[in-house]
Structures are given as C-alpha cells and as structure tokens.
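User: I'm new to structure prediction. If I give you an amino acid sequence, what do you actually give back? Let's try with this one:
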Amino acid sequence: MLDPLDHDHDRRKPGLMSSLRASFLTGIVVIAPIGLTAYFLWSVVGWIDSVVLPLVPSVWRPEQYIGINLRGVGVIFFLVFTVIIGWVAKGLIGRSLISWAEGLVEQMPVVRSIYTGLKQIAETVFAQQESSFEKACLVEYPRRGIWAIGFISTNAKGGVNRMAGGSEALISVFVPTTPNPTSGFLLFFPQSEVTELDMSIEDAAKLVISAGLVYPEDKSRPEEVPLVRLPEKTARESWR
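Assistant: Good question. You get back a string of structure tokens that encode the predicted 3D arrangement of the chain. For your 240 residues, that looks like this:
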C-alpha cells in the first residue's frame, strides 16, 4: 500500500527545484552585468598599465618602494601626462611645436594619410563641443520591406547631396550592427524615406545591443480607459 506522504514529498520536490532554479537565474541576471562591467574596467586598466608603465622610469614606480604592483598606477601617469600635454599645447610654444611637427608629417606620404585620418577621428570623437546623433529612426534596409534602426546624424552636404540627392534633400543615417553598435554603415536616405521614432538615443541603443530583447516603453500608446460599471437599476432598464 502506497504511503500518501510519499506523494506529498514527490510534489514538493519539483517545486523546490523550480524555486532554486529561478533564484539562480535571478542571481545571474543581477551578477552578470556587474561582473562583466568590473571585468571590462579591470582589463582596460591592466592594458593601460602594460603600455604606460614600461615608459615610466623605475624610480617613479611605486612597486620599487612597496614591493606590490598596484593596478591603476599607469592610468594615473597617463592622465597626468595627458593633462600636461594639453596644457602645453594651448600655449604659444606648444602650438608652434605642433605646427612644426605637422609640417614634417605632411612631407611623408604614407604617414601623412594615417596621421590625417587619425586626427580627424580624434577631433570628431573628443571634440569639446557637443556633437551627437540627433534622433533615432527607422529606415528600410537592406531592401524594401525590411526595417532597421538608425541614428540620424546630419543633413547631407556638399557633393554628396548635390550628386545623389537630386530634388530632395538627403539625410545621413548611421545604421548600427548588433550587438556591437559602434560598427555599422553610413547611409544616405531621402528625407521622405526616414521615419523618426519617439524614442531616445539611449533606448534605441539598448534595443540594438540586446538584439530586440529590451524594448522601451511605448509613450505613444493611449492610456487604458477604466471600465465604468452602470448601476444595477440602469443596467436592468437597458435590457427592457
């Protein structure tokens, strides 16, 4: 004869395992972003230390005195050195030295192309004035009927707009890739083919990075109207 307690035990066991599994997955969701962010920062700091510290004289390194290699010392040296270089470059002597060095680089064909490209990228990324994407949008890419999220950059100017725009102005749109939004394609669309989204740049970036798993709240969705219940007497009269 079967003991009913055994059946109760069998029913409780899957519930316990399901609870443990759900708790484990919740812990992963909480720990993973923090752990990956900490690991990324730790790796970046270590990489900067490995590049900067060999260039620093040994007498300036703290491990020579405390016997411990402190991670992050190279980052401090890099920040101090960058601030000093920027301060010198703002002065008359610094500008003269930079102009003289750029004049030498201009005489080197291959080095000139590399330096000019890197300088333009650095000036665009680290410019002091704010220059960022204006709005998130939808464009039909790579063919009609398939939509992709893009970021509106600026209106096309110069030869691009003159040669390809025709009678309608072109808009430059950056279409990012998933899950790395820093790579993508710079495309030029007629203004009529660009659909602006009621979505911030940050929310659109989250949508791209998460491969469509994280959707922002739809602000344009109409609020639900609460259902009004009629009094019982009125409801009866309506059926007559």
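You can read the tokens as a compact description of the fold. Here is one thing that stands out. The longest strand covers residues 147-155.
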